[in-house]
Design goal:
With about 425 residues, the protein is an all-alpha fold. The chain is built from 24 helices and no strands.
């Protein structure tokens, strides 16, 4: 048995090497090696210094409401840099305190709290406080931006559209990035790319590093979705040139190397370098997929267990439900259905319904899975993973024509789906 196990690994690695010879390489380790050092953690260290500075000021003057916003912002940055959710929860506490003690800036703190809740995937909570703030004295336009965001997350697309109409201004960065999100939902990838390219020009003209980082990474993702791997890679590099420890850009470069170039060794090297300073649980799933692609099912399962053990801790709430559903569907489909039903309560979108359908499909309930797809998913989303699940369910119910249509539609979606999910 052991010999057969190693033979499988050898065959997978041989396949990976032969695939590397066939595909066009778009990455070069010399471009990004500088950013992979374990000491490259300047964003976190800077935020930690900010946290200590504002904490000290607050201890000296507990009524200093003006110190609360930068303190919460420091905690938020520490979370993004480290993946440690405790910092995100601490920021929430500070924003709530600021709302309670502030006399003039409640709506500003409310938007910051809403953004924090969105990061926690507490979309309904964010919606409630934004709607309440919007009815009172508030910066209407800034709140409309966030109401659009939260309605999109909740699948309340008609409400989101009403705010997008109010915001219409093709010279406005905040409008353009939201228009891109709407066009992407409608399956108009080319329009989304054009919207973000226009937003990038604005970000570059302002020389605003936060806007540039956000736009570069999101536009790079869209380039990847459209098969423009070189363009995507170059924008991830530009992001690292602005922020050398940007973990998302490094992760996405690793994804290109794995999903497009089929170089599992190099992809693993990048992910390992990220995990030195960042504890985001979903890196375990990345490593699990790589191991599975290499034929090492034992190692793949070990990484899945590490992920599930970490996200089962109460501090994460519902943040990783989507990934838990996918993992549990393969081994504990009953639990997967329960997680999926919880996620529907959190946000009822075509994408979350596709997860519920998939969980039922893996649980042997093909007819129920089909009913969910037909009622809540079919024709309502262009997201490749949802289409992939729909195809599996159509095939299981002998809807061959629909299966073949989707198979053709997602044939170029390897960037989103990875090499393991093929029809």
């Amino acid at each position: 048995m052991m010999k057969n196990h190693y033979l499988l690994i050898l065959l997978a690695l041989t396949f990976s090497c032969s695939e590397n010879a066939k595909v066009e390489r778009v990455t070069n380790k010399e471009d990004y090696n500088l950013f992979l050092t374990s000491t490259n953690n300047s964003t976190f260290n800077s935020a930690l210094s900010e946290k200590e500075f504002w904490s000290k000021r607050l201890r000296q003057d507990s009524s200093g409401v003006g110190d609360l916003a930068p303190l919460a912002n420091a905690y938020s940055t520490m979370y993004k840099s480290s993946g440690e959710v405790k910092y995100l929860l601490e920021a929430e506490k500070i924003y709530r305190k600021a709302i309670n003690v502030s006399a003039k800036n409640k709506d500003s703190y409310t938007r910051s709290l809403a953004q924090n809740l969105i990061s926690q995937h507490r979309f309904n909570d964010a919606k409630l406080i934004l709607e309440k703030s919007y009815k009172g004295l508030s910066n209407k336009r800034a709140t409309e931006h966030m109401l659009f965001d939260v309605y999109m997350e909740l699948g309340e697309y008609k409400k989101a559209d009403t705010y997008l109409i109010k915001l219409k201004n093709k010279n406005d960065y905040n409008y353009l990035i939201r228009l891109a999100k709407r066009n992407d939902r409608l399956g108009n990838l080319n329009a989304s790319i054009k919207n973000l390219e226009d937003a990038m020009k604005i970000a570059d003209s302002r020389k605003s590093i936060p806007l540039q980082i956000w736009t570069y990474t999101n536009l790079a993702d869209f380039y990847g979705h459209s098969g423009r791997m070189k363009d995507a890679y170059q924008l991830y590099l530009k992001t690292l040139q602005l922020q050398g420890d940007n973990v998302y850009a490094k992760k996405q470069i690793a994804w290109i190397i794995y999903s497009f170039e089929k170089n599992t060794i190099e992809a693993n090297r990048i992910i390992d370098s990220i995990m030195v300073n960042n504890k985001n649980p979903d890196y375990y799933l990345f490593k699990s997929e790589i191991a599975k692609f290499e034929g090492n099912t034992i190692k793949s399962k070990e990484f899945e267990e590490l992920f599930l053990n970490e996200v089962s801790k109460n501090k994460y709430g519902v943040m990783y439900n989507k990934y838990s559903i996918q993992v549990l569907a393969e081994t504990k489909p009953n639990e997967s259905v329960l997680f999926a039903e919880q996620e529907i309560m959190n946000r009822a979108t075509p994408e979350t319904f596709s997860l519920l359908a998939y969980a039922n499909y893996k649980n042997g309930n093909n007819k129920k899975a089909l009913s969910i797809i037909q009622q809540y998913v079919e024709g309502k989303t262009y997201e490749p993973l949802s289409l992939y699940y729909s195809a599996l369910i159509f095939k299981a119910n002998n809807f061959t024509n629909k299966y073949n249509t989707i198979k053709k539609e997602i044939s170029n979606s390897s960037f989103e789906l990875g090499p393991l999910l093929e029809l």
